[in-house]
Amino acid sequence: MEKLMVFIFLAAFLKPEVPDSPLSITVYVTGQQKGLIQLLVFDSPEGFPDQPQKAIRREAVKIENGKAFFHFKDLKKGEYAISAFHDQDGDGKMRKNIFGIPKDPYGFSNDVRNPFSPPTFQSAAIQLPKDGLAISFTLL
User: Fold this and answer.
1) CATH number for the domain including 66?
2) Pfam families attached here (predicted)?
3) What is the pTM (predicted TM-score) of this model?
């Protein structure tokens, strides 16, 4: 009987480690009427906002009815920042002028904008809760 009581006590208070279940982010991007939207998802400041090789997810979607819809599955709970641009010529690259200023409309999660530089990861960061998240932002 004593062993049974110890087992019940341990079962009630010691919970096994359960790995985080996969989560998702749904992103709606507006602001353009035709073409492609290139979108990058980052889970750290490294490479944010414009280094696709350092993004954890990258996708291009055709604009339909003035919106592009993205859905990323199998993510872990945590902090993410998203960047996107209007890929007018479909080459997968943002066009920039000789000073490095984007020619193509672009945007970031939280609709964050800095007048003279790209936003920081922290300013664009969103928290992914356990039930997933849907966000939207506009390309300007």
Assistant:
1) 2.60.40.10
2) DUF2141
3) 0.83
* Total number of domains constituting the chain: 1
Nearest-angstrom CA–CA distance, 77 and 68: 24
Q: Are 126 and 79 in contact (CB under 8 A)?
A: yes
Sign of the alpha-carbon torsion through 137, 105, 34, 32: positive
For the chain, the first-to-last Cα distance in angstroms comes to 70
Q: One digit per residue, pLDDT tens: the chain, 140 residues? A: 554 444 444 444 444 444 556 899 999 999 999 999 999 999 999 999 999 999 999 999 999 999 999 999 999 989 999 999 999 889 999 999 999 889 999 999 999 998 888 999 999 999 998 888 999 999 99
Parent domain of 36: 20-138
